[in-house]
Amino acid sequence: MTQHDPQQDIWKQQVGEAAAKLVEDNMIVGLGTGSTANQFILALGRRVQQGLRIAGAVSSSQASHDLATSMGIPVADLDTYPELDIYIDGADEIDPQLQLIKGAGGALLREKIVASSARRFVVIADTSKLVQRLGLLFPVPVEVVPFAITPVRKRLEALGAVVTTRQRAGQTFITENQNLILDCAFPDGIADPVTLNAHLHAIVGVVETGLFLQMAKQAVIGGADGVHIIQPA
């Protein structure tokens, strides 16, 4: 894990504000989860308060729902808005093809559902999240049905993963979907994310993975030299 740099908070705020400018009147907006997504939600809320009229929003977690509601953003669900114009969220790692590892906050399943419901997924991050190969800094979170946790763990280990059951505050972490997360570290990184993701999804009991592949259309990246838009390599 990388150490926290106070400068990153400024970069997150800058990319959140830049991403909020991508939202236009009458759009239906997907709201991500996490510290960078929070900056986007705050910036979007300020735009709404200044007169931006979005049709509605769908959040990927209760925390994002609560923050958006507090900012005056009209939040509904995917039953109301099954198709979104844009989804904006952060990531834990971003490679040159805009393949992502997401889910350090534990909302990966709902994040992927909302992202897949959007016509355009924009990932926002600071430069510390840019990597040449996925898996060197962050493990891949795998959401698992509790009943299957032990056989799934054995199959993940057979794929070369160092597997840890996610804990939070000394307790086993339970997702908003009442599942568990197995964090899968790959010491040498992930040479072929597409193949690995296919292997993970073939394991019965796996609900979803934190590999977001061929999903992000562009990245808004903040750093010491300002905010830049990156397209897939």
TrEMBL record:
Residues involved in substrate binding: T33, G34, S35, T36, D89, G90, A91, D92, K102, G103, A104, G105, K129
Gene Ontology molecular function: ribose-5-phosphate isomerase activity
Keyword Isomerase: yes
UniProt keywords, alphabetically: Isomerase
Active site, UniProt feature: E111 (proton acceptor)
GO biological processes: D-ribose metabolic process; pentose-phosphate shunt, non-oxidative branch
Alphabetized InterPro entries for the sequence: NagB/RpiA_transferase-like, Ribose5P_isomerase_typA_subgr, Ribose5P_isomerase_type_A
CDD domains: RPI_A (cd01398)
Pathway(s) annotated for this protein in UniProt: Carbohydrate degradation; pentose phosphate pathway; D-ribose 5-phosphate from D-ribulose 5-phosphate (non-oxidative stage): step 1/1
SUPFAM superfamilies: D-ribose-5-phosphate isomerase (RpiA), lid domain, NagB/RpiA/CoA transferase-like
Reaction(s) this enzyme catalyzes, per UniProt: aldehydo-D-ribose 5-phosphate = D-ribulose 5-phosphate
A GO cellular component annotation in the UniProt record: cytosol
The enzyme's E.C. designation: 5.3.1.6
Keyword Isomerase applies: yes
Subunit note: Homodimer.
NCBIfam families: PRK00702.1, rpiA
Role according to the record: Catalyzes the reversible conversion of ribose-5-phosphate to ribulose 5-phosphate.
Family, per entry: Belongs to the ribose 5-phosphate isomerase family.
Protein name: Ribose-5-phosphate isomerase A
Source organism: Reticulibacter mediterranei
